[in-house]
Every structure is written in structure tokens, then in C-alpha cells.
UniProtKB/TrEMBL annotation:
Organism: Halopseudomonas bauzanensis
Protein name as annotated: Cell division protein FtsQ
PROSITE patterns associated with the record: POTRA
Function as written in the Swiss-Prot or TrEMBL entry: Essential cell division protein. May link together the upstream cell division proteins, which are predominantly cytoplasmic, with the downstream cell division proteins, which are predominantly periplasmic. May control correct divisome assembly.
Family affiliation: Belongs to the FtsQ/DivIB family. FtsQ subfamily.
Pfam families, per database record: FtsQ_DivIB_C, POTRA_1
Gene that this sequence comes from: ftsQ
Subcellular location: Cell inner membrane; Membrane
Length: 288
């Protein structure tokens, strides 16, 4: 029993050694490589589309050129057609329609395509009451002109009017606007003076005052005159705060004697002085 077991172990060892030993003198057989077949080159879809585009583009250009030529031949009579109707639109109160017609008349012989719209617009804006103008072609032979007028808000000196944006314009018959407030100041300050006038007017109106004159002097001092003839000296700085101070005192102490007030000096830091038109029982000058 023991001997048989030992023999079996030796055979197993020889067998294992034989299995692990390298095969000396053995020939390795390499399997044949797979046969490579020649590829058939077929044109791709992108190449075909590209070639088609190269062929079609010249043809499309020729067709487009012929179409444009035919369209130009058909439109040429219409392009030379004179303007038959000019429509002027806008809420016009001061603009003279006869003056508008005189500005348009030199352009009536032009066709719709050849008329110089910018030149016509410039001629219209040069009219005294025209604030803005727009000129539009309407096919086949019409023009639409839209005009906006200046809105006169105040006089600027003796020779011009101001619109609500502080833009000056010089219309005819300016004397008929003497009822408007009179504003004055350096030429470069028109817009600033107009804005200050509008601000003061909003402050004064609830208290029964209205601005008759407003002046900004060269050194930056403001002078205001109400419709009642009260001169208000505001000085240079904090003019809105100073005006509110006057209105507070006016409501408490002066409202029933406004016709006696000649001048109010607000150029003080925390008070004001009042000058009366005629002697009164109240002493001149009052403080908060």
C-alpha cells in the first residue's frame, strides 16, 4: 500500500516536470494571415453635393441676373413716375400750411425714387415752428410728411421763445406771446433756466403764486418775479430749499398781505427779509 503510493507520486512528479519543461526542438506553426481584399472607392455624399453646388451656382447667378434685369425694365417706368400726392400730417396750430407748400414745391418735379428726402426734411425743419419732421415714401407715387410743432412755454429775452425742452426758436409775430413768462440768462443756460422755471412753477402754483419772470445772472444768482409783482432774491445755492422757506412763511404770515410785498430777500442761511411797497404797521423784515 505504501509502495504503490510512492510510485504514483514519482510518476506524477515526472509528468509534472515533463509538462513544465520547454518543448525543445518543437516547430511553431503560425496561422495564415487573413486575406486582404482591395477596397472599392465610392464618392461620398458630401463630395457629390459639393460638385452639385459647383455646377448649380453659376446657373443660379445667371438666372438671378436675368431676373434682376427684367425687374429693372419693368420698374423703370414707375421709377420715373412723378409724385402725385403729398400728405402732410400733424396737429398743426401755428405752422402755416402755405409755408409748408412753398417748402415742398421745389421737389414736386422729382420722382419718388430720385427725390432727396434729407434735403426736403432739412428745409422743413428750417421753418420757425417745426420742431421735428419725417418724410416717408409710399409706393408708387406718394409722400407722407409728419410735422411736430414747438410748444411755446416762455419767452427768452426779447427775440425768441422757448419750448418745454428749453430749445429756443424765433417765430414771426413774437409780440403776440407777451403773456408768456419771461426767462433770461446766458445763452448756454437755456435748458437749465427752463428746468428751474418748471420746478419753481410746480412749487408756487399750489400756494396761488405764478412765475412771471426768472433770471439767472452771470455770477449764478437767481431772481424771480411772481405774477403779483413780488420780487424774490434767491442767490446762488439751495434755491429750492429757499423757495420752500418762503412758501412756508407766506402761508403762515404773509398770504393776506401779498399786495403790500415789494421784495423778499432769501439770501440768508436761515431767514428772509421782506420789503414793503408802502409804510405798514409791521416792521420790515421777518425771521422764521
Amino acid at each position: 500500500m505504501l509502495l504503490g503510493l510512492m510510485i504514483r507520486d514519482q510518476r506524477a512528479g515526472r509528468t509534472a516536470g515533463r509538462r513544465n519543461a520547454p518543448n525543445r526542438g518543437a516547430v511553431r506553426v503560425t496561422p495564415p494571415a487573413p486575406r486582404s481584399w482591395p477596397r472599392l472607392s465610392m464618392p461620398s455624399v458630401n463630395d457629390a453635393a459639393r460638385r452639385m453646388q459647383q455646377l448649380l451656382w453659376p446657373l443660379l447667378l445667371v438666372v438671378l441676373g436675368m431676373g434682376l434685369y427684367e425687374l429693372a425694365n419693368r420698374l423703370q417706368p414707375l421709377a420715373q413716375r412723378p409724385i402725385s400726392l403729398i400728405n402732410v400730417e400733424g396737429d398743426l396750430q401755428y405752422i402755416d400750411r402755405e409755408s409748408v407748400h412753398q417748402s415742398i414745391e421745389p421737389y414736386l418735379e422729382e420722382s419718388l425714387l430720385t427725390i432727396d428726402l434729407e434735403a426736403l426734411r432739412a428745409d422743413l425743419i428750417a421753418m420757425p415752428w417745426v420742431a421735428s419732421a419725417a418724410v416717408t415714401r409710399v409706393w408708387p407715387d406718394q409722400l407722407v410728411i409728419t410735422l411736430d410743432e414747438h410748444l411755446p412755454v416762455a419767452r427768452w429775452g426779447d427775440s425768441a421763445l422757448l419750448n418745454n425742452a428749453g430749445r429756443a426758436f424765433v417765430p414771426e409775430h413774437i409780440d403776440s406771446f407777451e403773456g408768456l413768462p419771461l426767462l433770461n440768462g446766458p445763452e448756454r443756460t437755456k435748458r437749465r433756466v427752463m428746468q428751474t422755471y418748471q420746478q419753481f412753477n410746480r412749487l408756487l402754483r399750489p400756494y396761488g403764486h405764478r412765475v412771471a419772470q426768472l433770471e439767472l445772472r452771470d455770477r449764478g444768482s437767481w431772481f424771480l418775479t411772481t405774477r403779483e409783482g413780488i420780487e424774490i432774491l434767491l442767490g446762488q445755492g439751495d434755491v429750492v430749499e429757499k423757495m420752500q422757506r418762503f412758501l412756508t412763511i407766506d402761508k403762515l404770515m404773509l398770504s393776506d398781505r401779498r399786495e403790500l410785498i415789494a421784495r423778499v430777500d432769501l439770501r440768508y442761511s436761515n431767514g428772509m427779509a421782506v420789503a414793503w411797497r408802502e409804510p405798514a404797521t409791521i416792521q420790515s423784515g421777518s425771521n422764521e
